[in-house]
Here is the input.
Amino acid sequence: MNTLPEWTDLRFFLELARAGTLSSAARRLAVEHTTVARRIDRLEAQLGTTLFDRSREGYELTELGAALRPHAEAMEGAALAAAEHVKGADVAAHGVVRLGVPEVFGVRVVAPLMARLLENNPDLSIDLLALPRFANLANREADLGVMLDPPTTGRYMVTRLASFRFYLYAAPAYLARHPPITQQSDLVRHDFVDYVQDRLASSELSYLNELGFTPRRRLCCSGMSGQLEAAALGMGLMMAPPYAVPHDGRLVQVLDGFYAERAFWLVAPADLYRLRRVRLVWDLLRTYADSQPALFQHGPASR
Here is the structure.
């Protein structure tokens, strides 16, 4: 190899590694798919190795391609940090931050928080990905994300955002039509609203397993927003954290003292964490979660 690879070729390499197909990578880069293919061919020829296995399903990194990826991502992070510094990021955060969050948490907690952040940072923009799953940070779907399962491999900054509890809730009309609930064993006679079990975004969402019996799931939804509406319409009991339940009386807590406890983790790729705009969102989420324990648990924070 007589010359070093061009950074732009490595950028095309990263986008194809993340997207998996030429067309998806081309959309991210705002170029034709033939341009992506040509850049990858040039990079492979320059390095004298095959970086991707090609198939009808798309492009998958070879072993050597996977070995190159963290080096290319480190270069990407350095380029982003350099651009921020040159543009005066030491004075004010600017640019776009893509934040991946669970859907209800994103709508009810994070969106109002981002509105206040943007008022104080006129050069900052937020892409809020409020999803019924967790953002794929490995493919750079988001710059940082809130999730139940922190990554165990790769270069990430990870911190516990908050411990939270799922409590039992039901509509008053449902409770009026069904046998009373005074102890946990009474729950076996009731209907439940839950996630679609073969579409769980995380095994941590199988909290109904902690009931001690197999619940009678009358309606299952892929996201919590659908569950909240179904439970409010009297279709069964559901479990949810305090921040998810509207204070409009449509749902009331059942069986005080029973809950399932989980933790949210805040995660960002290590190279993106260095960016001022990403750290600004990171620090805001950390500070807000610490200051609002009632969003996550009823009563004292410890058992």
Remarks:
- The radius of gyration is 23 Å.
- The beta strands are 52-55, 58-61, 95-102, 124-131, 144-147, 156-170, 191-195, 216-221, 238-240, 252-269.
